[in-house]
Amino acid sequence: MGEIFVIVEHRKDEIRDITFEMLWKANEVSQKLSYTLTAVIIGSKIETLVNELAPRADKVIVVEDEQLKEFNSELYKTVLQDLMDECHPFLTLIGHTSWGMEIGPSLSVKTGFPLATDCLDIMIEDDDRPIAIRQMYSGKIYSKVSFRPSDGYILTVRPGAFPPDRVGEHQGEIVKREVPDLPEPPRHFVEFIDTGAGEVDISQAELLVSVGRGIENKENLSAVKELADLLGGVISCSRPVVDKNWLPKYHQVGTSGKSVKAKVYLALGISGAFQHIAGITRVGTVIAVNKDPNAPIFRVADYAVVADLFEIVASLKEKLRVSQKVFCETTEVGRMHDA
Amino acid sequence: MNIIVCVKRVPLTQEVDLEIDERKKDVRKDMLVYIINEWDNYAMEEAVLLKERFGGTVTAITVGSEDDEEVLRRCLAMGADKGLRVDPGDIELDGFVISRILAEAIKGLEYDLILTGVQAGDNNYAMVGIMLAEHLDLPHAAVVTGIEPDGNEATIKCELEGGMEEISRIKLPALLSIQTGINEPRYVSIMALRKAGKKELNVIKLEELKLPNDDLLPRTIIEEVFLPPDTAGAEVIEGEPDTVAEEILRIIREKGVGI
Fold first, then answer.
1. Which residues does A82 contact at the CB level (< 8 Å), separation at least 6?
2. pLDDT by residue (tens digit) across A237-262?
3. Whole domain around residue A160: which residue ranges?
């Protein structure tokens, strides 16, 4: 009977969501093919995590060793290659994360199994061969990808592509595996650094005025900052703005930045790369302003404005200034100021 | 410190209407403007910065047609010493095949570091760099946002999810796939491009690498490309900026944000 591997991703004693998302899809595929769904976890002192996985897979393969505590591509690769050479899993699912971007291509070369990266969906054809759906050109085009025939196939899965399977119906058999001879790795973990902390916490803001590449230069930011102030909102941004050092990292929304949950998210000149969109899934209402009518942000926005962001920002500021002036003139504070 | 940087020329597709070609295997490219892949531009800049600090040479390499030499010339203008183009002729290329070609072209060269971009803006594979490292049996790291070499090792910073970064030590020679934002790529002037015209730019044909046929067979096949499936879609706000602004403010208030 065939087998489907899901390589478990965990960090700091927590299983990452991508793992549950992959298990959800793998469960569907394994049922269709009547294959065994196997979660593979590598680490050290991971008993709690193993217990969390058991109800979600037919089998949990555990490889435990002090040396395997933190992800180390060299060591993890050795363990996984050993396992894959022996079990020949039909599909091996790995997260399309920083971690998976390293181990996926490595394992593909080591095992000879073809690799499709950043898959949004996985389908099984009538002849039982897999098909992957993925994006090209930063999400503007989709592609249907088939593989050269092989004993096994490796797919890295986009975070957020599938719902996280938190409901278990399996009673997975736990299989502890001997650790193979590990090489002296040429790379050593030193430490984790949290770059998310800063003067403002965008994850707590009710209203975010968010800017992207469309802002064009640093000078233009001041107009948007003024708008954010007038609205009583907080300024946030997409990756290119941080890459260019126009705003500090703690303003960044997205996979490598922060996940936000504002009531309203005003996206100005943000094209909507999937890494960015992953950070706004909990937002109440998305209003997107972009010159490009095909910008992927419009696919997730509630309201779309196809226009030059600077014109919209100028009009918004104008309106807010007028209403503030009216407010001042009709209140005590306003009269005191006038006097 | 000798550094090899792998680069790719890709079409600029932001704010461009993409049309699917007749074979439904890719987009129509005849009207598109080409640029250096954004990630590779950062990798190239990082190589030149390291060369400025530690000396050595920088070689830019690409797998592509004569048109793609434009990108190599740009790299030469940024500060690379040599350019190398491997002409693959008209064979189908996937990430694996590109990585095999690069490995074969690089294996005789001297280097301490190989830099690639994390991914290319056209296919978004994010696999060529690490596969290349594997073919050459090199230590490697993906999504790198900082490099500090000392002696035979380097301290590197890799970007993880959720605002986390990982610091690690890696032995050289190594391959690092570079993330955007690691530096501020320099502006390339017409003058610099003109001067770079005198620098060495070599071309080798794929046949010269004598790769086994099996290595030149793609492992993944694009069966078909299509436009994104329809979603519920956003409600479009149209009109003069003034009207649009009025409507945006109305929505913000309606959603319970006090302004």
1. A180
2. 999 999 999 999 999 999 999 999 99
3. 3-176
**Which of B29, B132, B220, B231 is most worth mutating to test chain A (most A CB atoms within 10 A of its CB)?**
B220
- Of the candidates B143, B181, B234, the beta carbon closest to that of A304 is on B234
| A208 shares its domain with A285 | yes
Residues A159 and A232 in one domain: no
Q: Note down the domain range covering B64.
A: 3-216
Three-class DSSP category at B139: coil
Same domain, A170 and A34: yes
Average of per-residue pLDDT across B63-76: 97
In degrees and rounded to multiples of 5, residue B239 shows phi and psi of 125, -175
Question: With b meaning 16 or more CB within 10 Å and e meaning fewer, what string describes B137-170?
Answer: ebbbbbbbbbbebeeebbebbbbbbbbbbbbbeb
Please indicate whether, in this complex, the C-beta atoms of B259 and A207 are within 8 angstroms of each other.
yes
Kindly report the CATH number assigned to the domain that includes residue A18.
Answer: 3.40.50.620
* Token pair of A291 as six digits: 């010159």
pLDDT score for A334? 46
Q: Total domain count for chain B? A: 1
CA angle A174, A175, A178 (to 5 degrees): 145
Q: Do A101 and B157 touch (CB under 8 A)?
A: no
For A260, the closest chain B residue by CA position comes to: B162
- Let me know if residue B259 belongs to a domain: no
Interface test with B, best of A101, A157, A275 (most B CBs within 10 A): A101
Cross-chain CB nearest to B248 (options A97, A150, A316): A316
Residue A229 lies in a domain: yes
Asked, for residue B255, whether it belongs to a domain, the answer is no
Same domain, A118 and A225: no
Task: Check CB contact of B219 with chain A, cutoff 8 Å.
Answer: yes
* φ and ψ at residue B144, rounded to 5 degrees: -85, 135
Q: Which of A153, A156, A187, A201 to mutate to probe the B interface, most B CBs <10 Å?
A: A187
The answer on pLDDT for B236 being more than 90 is: yes
B221 interfaces chain A, CB cutoff of 8 Å: yes
Residue range A212-231: mean pLDDT, rounded: 96
Q: Is residue A153 part of a domain?
A: yes
- Let me know how long chain A is: 339
Residue A324 belongs to domain with CATH number = 3.40.50.1220
Q: How many domains are there within chain A? A: 2
Name the residue among A98, A105, A186 with its Cβ closest to that of B159: A98
Is B253 a member of any domain?
no
φ/ψ bin of A141: left (φ > 0), alpha (ψ from -120 to 50), beta (otherwise):
beta
CA dist B237 and A98 (Å) reads: 38
Pairwise CB contact (< 8 Å): A138 & B14:
yes
Instruction: Name the band, by pLDDT with cuts 50, 70 and 90, for residue A36.
Output: very high
CATH number at residue B60: 3.40.50.620
Mean pLDDT value across residues A94-99: 96
